[in-house]
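I would like you to sit down with the record closing this message with an eye to the fold:
=====
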Amino acid sequence: MNSAAPARLILLTGGDSPLARTLAAALCADWRVRLFDDHFSTPAPEGVEAVSGDLRDPDAVAAAVSGGEVVLHLDPIAPRPGDETLALDRATQGSYVLVNAARQAGVRRLILGSTLRLFESLPAHWRITEAWRPRPSTDIAQLRAWLAEVGVAANTRRGPLLTICLRLGQVVDEARLADRLFDPFWLHRDDAIHGFQQALKFQPQDPDAPHWHVFHLTAPGSRAHLQLADAHSARPEFGYAPSHALGPGAPETTEPPDPRPWQAVLAPPEMASRPIRNVVVFGAGGPLGAVTARELAATYRLRLTDARPIADIIAEAKPQMLGAPLPTWLGAPHTYQVVDIRDPAQVLAACEGMDAIVNCAVVRWVTPGAFQVNTLGMYHLLRAAQAHGIRRIVQTGPLMVEGPAIVNAAYAGDYDLTEAAPPRLFDYLYYHSKALGHEIARVFAETQGCEVPVLLFAGLTDPALPGSPDAAFFISWEDAARAVRRALEIPRLPNPLEFFHVAVERPQRRFDFSKLKTVLGWQARDGLEHHWRR
């Protein structure tokens, strides 16, 4: 007699959460279920394997996904009380590690759990579908879910993993709701299970369709904050058909429709501005921070910070690259402070009494440092800016439409690329960690009233050095510092967060730099024509 074929393996991250345990119990009849979390408060359901490990540890995650066919990534929506930085790190760095490990292990499908509360700020009478861009708040639960979406979607472009994002309402058991105030985001447990089962079966109708798909799991009925279209999600091929309308018999509407134009509804709040006299510079020991400090020193009182004592960096006298500036010691009224941007308390103290922030801190090539500095560090800066009422935060980062070969393929053969060209991050660590920091900045700018000009650089050089005729995105160190000054001083941005490609305009026309002139009001002084002229 032939023995039964072994059950296929499915891995659930955030395995100690109530949702993971509920899904594990529902799936174990057809799957071999493995729960993964850093700890387990109670034993796993009968017949379910529980594996402990850190989602940010590549070796632990590789072992957990080994042999798996499907991953249910629930960690970004699992309850994580306590340390906000740790919770955000798991959602960003942890998701990056997981997707890379799943791809390398040959996992065929990844289902990401997210939340419909990303649309909580939008009026209930708007007909919101999966095509709408989420509007997360700075609440850590929403930030975790949203940044996991951004990171997983970008990494999924690397292929060939089929990734399905399910945005859920608040999963509840109807039997326990009798004494609770109605929440229009409630989603019955059975409907949530049904949605995940549909995601396990879903196949794109077009085999050449993108690998990223989003579906909303909301309750049926007119009382849900987000309504279903014709009893199913916006894409009927998904087949989601919930059956548990929650809160029947109560009034169908709880508030009148908002009569304001949508532009007014979505307008960011106004933050009171004040003259900029005191500026804190993070990463002042690096070349961009060093040249920026010299540029600003005659105009502002600077607080210059780095993870190492800047006096030690000056004494060491080792440029990061040929022609890169080194910091110089600036006397009073300027001050120096050792600040680890990974430490929120140190960042908060460094921003006290400041009117603006310039962020030049960066880690490019290593993890966990890249996520801790580029992503979590930006979160710490923005929380500090919020606490101290700082409106202007100048952020710096890399050009993200070129880079490694896999990234170059995204815009190969294109010309006149502008800041509107969506970045292509794939699994490139530097871009990935920086872009998530930029997205945190966007959320804060759109919801808290601060303004964040983001200056994107590629090649920075000493004009005395030789160049390459193919170098379409170069700028001198001194011009880069002058661009930082202009970003600090421009009276107002068209949008709360604005990206600027910062380089010398060149006749190759690979890039269009007109926004530098029309919005930033800036133009390079060093033409670097020897890069392309004989």
Summary: Residues 278-531 form a domain with the Rossmann fold fold (CATH 3.40.50.720). The longest strand covers residues 31-37. Residues 494 and 519 are 8 Å apart (CA to CA).
